[in-house]
């Protein structure tokens, strides 16, 4: 593949012209007035008869018309998105910098439909069976700690992709959780994270899950070592480690060196990216919390979305639609961010999860053809659960000077019918995109204010310009399958944007430099001697900070 600059595609120039001629002054009020079927034209419902999942995507409140939408689809065609999707599913090494396949879709191909010829793919099923046996044994109480007691707490020790997925999913699927099994997640190297967790754990009944793809990540290995020391202080005998520590990794040797028994190792493969790994052994904490059967439903839901992504036409393909609309704002309107706003308390970690998923994937400036891009790539992803955000940052979305495209997500059914809470919650979910799209004109404000309308500043302050774009996504209910499909939808949206921008969404070279410098600085801190700072080769700012620290450290 040529991996041209996206801006060199013919439709890029046409989109630029469309932005100038109509995009930037597009008026949603008029568009909806002029076309009574706008919702029907710009919404798609996806459902699967294989799993309990259904997703409605309404993208009608976007600054698009048929000409713009078709031009965006042409961009996808020119970038050979279909071909790139096929390459991904075929196991081609599309992660070119690391010469790796990108096969998280193989992890959830539970029935083995994709027939991918890549080492390790045939080991997925046995590894899932291993996870099933183990999670069943722990959950039933058959697995005993070193004093013969069943496990009551699990502590997942991992960071980034080895933490965020399990955290997000166990929170989102809490209604399915085994409530008498406490799940903790320790990620930060800050000793506080581990100390506060160990405070509420009992070494006799705690299982530590050391989750690290590479098994070299400083935070995880340090945290795991601290946990093992804490455990051995009580258990004394190193042989007991086998009952309380398991490892999830691609690096079997390093996990063995750490002291993890072979049978307590859950492996995965280098074609699983960290931020796409919750479907692999990294999901063990999920299986422990919700049970293996539910974990498999999550995989099956994602698989159904994979099939849709692979087979649906571009114009009906949910991930492709989300990706193209994102590009429209990111590259032509100059939007810098994208908010993800789930109206479901259980989904409160969803935006955090896709902060890594999207920003680590598409925060790149080099194309696969080694050119520097001359357009913007990945957006800044942020958000939180509704309605909390409404009382915090929505002011800026409604009346600020920045265009912030938002995805609103909500389930039709709640897991907790409490009075009329759900109706109130959803009334907000429906109202916010409406307010953002159509706003409130100066005339409306004046009419509303009556006599007070003579206060010009008050009038102007109450105007909502509208035309602020949103997608609305509704699921029937946040079930394991529905969540799996929703996560896969966003994963594939990221993939399509990367394909169009011609970047490699599957490496993360940008996280390395800081790690290398920290390793250089650590000995200076350990030496506790400020006089060693000068001459260590740092700039005056870093040296000044180091000396301030060392002169005041206690
Ligand atoms: O699972 P590991 O190897 O410990 O890595 C954890 C995280 O480490 C970070 O450095 C990477 O940027 C992430 O992509 C990764 O998920």
TrEMBL record:
Catalysed reactions listed for this entry: alpha-D-glucose 6-phosphate = beta-D-fructose 6-phosphate
Keyword Aminoacyl-tRNA synthetase: no
Record keywords, A-Z: Gluconeogenesis, Glycolysis, Isomerase
A single cellular component GO annotation: cytosol
GO molecular function: carbohydrate derivative binding; glucose-6-phosphate isomerase activity; monosaccharide binding
Keyword flag Flavoprotein: no
Stretch forming the signal peptide: none
Pathway this chain belongs to: Carbohydrate degradation; glycolysis; D-glyceraldehyde 3-phosphate and glycerone phosphate from D-glucose: step 2/4
EC number(s) reported in the record: 5.3.1.9
EC top class named in words: isomerase
Gene Ontology BP term (one): glycolytic process
Family per similarity comment: Belongs to the GPI family.
NCBIfam families, sorted: PRK00179.1
Role: In the cytoplasm, catalyzes the conversion of glucose-6-phosphate to fructose-6-phosphate, the second step in glycolysis, and the reverse reaction during gluconeogenesis.
The protein's name: Glucose-6-phosphate isomerase
């Amino acid at each position: 593949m040529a991996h041209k600059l996206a801006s060199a595609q013919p439709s890029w120039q046409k989109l630029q012209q469309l932005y100038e001629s109509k995009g930037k002054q597009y008026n949603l009020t008029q568009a909806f007035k002029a076309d009574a079927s706008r919702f029907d034209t710009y919404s798609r419902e996806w459902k699967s008869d294989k799993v309990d999942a259904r997703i409605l995507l309404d993208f009608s409140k976007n600054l698009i018309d048929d000409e713009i939408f078709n031009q965006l689809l042409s961009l996808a065609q020119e970038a050979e998105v279909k071909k790139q999707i096929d390459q991904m599913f075929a196991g081609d090494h599309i992660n070119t910098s690391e010469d790796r396949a990108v096969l998280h879709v193989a992890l959830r191909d539970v029935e083995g439909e994709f027939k991918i010829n890549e080492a390790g793919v045939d080991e997925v099923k046995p590894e899932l069976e291993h996870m099933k046996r183990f999670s069943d044994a722990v959950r039933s109480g058959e697995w005993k700690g070193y004093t013969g007691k069943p496990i009551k707490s699990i502590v997942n020790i991992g960071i980034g992709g080895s933490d965020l997925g399990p955290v997000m999913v166990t929170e989102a699927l809490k209604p399915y959780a085994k409530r008498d099994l406490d799940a903790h997640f320790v990620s930060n190297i800050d000793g506080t994270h581990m100390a506060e967790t160990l405070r509420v754990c009992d070494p006799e009944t705690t299982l530590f899950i050391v989750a690290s793809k590479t098994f070299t990540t400083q935070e995880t290995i340090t945290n795991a070592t601290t946990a093992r020391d804490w455990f051995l202080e009580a258990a004394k005998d190193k042989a007991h480690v086998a009952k309380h520590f398991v490892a999830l990794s691609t690096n079997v040797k390093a996990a063995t060196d750490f002291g993890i028994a072979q049978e307590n190792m859950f492996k995965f493969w280098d074609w699983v990216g960290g931020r796409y790994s919750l479907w692999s052994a990294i999901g063990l904490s999920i299986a422990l919390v919700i049970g293996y059967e539910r974990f498999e439903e999550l995989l099956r839901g994602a698989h159904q979305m994979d099939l849709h992504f692979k087979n649906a036409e571009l114009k009906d393909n949910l991930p492709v639609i989300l990706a193209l609309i994102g590009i429209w704002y990111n590259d032509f309107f100059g939007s810098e961010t994208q908010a993800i706003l789930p109206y479901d308390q259980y989904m409160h970690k969803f935006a955090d999860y896709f902060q890594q998923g999207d920003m680590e994937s598409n925060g790149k400036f080099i194309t696969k053809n080694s050119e520097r891009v001359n357009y913007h790539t990945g957006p800044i992803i942020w958000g939180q659960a509704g309605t909390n955000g409404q009382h915090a940052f929505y002011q800026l979305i409604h009346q600020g000077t920045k265009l912030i495209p938002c995805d609103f997500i909500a389930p039709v059914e709640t897991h907790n019918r409490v009075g009329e809470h759900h109706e109130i919650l959803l009334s907000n979910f429906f109202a916010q995109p409406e307010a953002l799209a159509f706003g409130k004109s100066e005339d409306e404000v004046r009419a509303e204010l009556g006599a007070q309308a003579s206060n010009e500043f008050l009038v102007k302050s109450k105007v909502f310009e509208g035309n602020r774009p949103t997608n609305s996504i509704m699921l029937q209910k946040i079930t394991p399958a529905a969540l799996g499909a929703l996560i896969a939808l966003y994963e594939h949206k990221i993939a399509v944007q990367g394909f169009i921008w011609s970047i490699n969404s599957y490496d993360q070279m940008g996280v390395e430099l800081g790690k290398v410098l920290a390793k250089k600085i650590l000995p200076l801190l350990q030496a506790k001697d400020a006089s060693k700072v000068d001459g260590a080769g740092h700039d005056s700012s870093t040296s000044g900070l180091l000396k301030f620290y060392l002169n005041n450290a206690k």
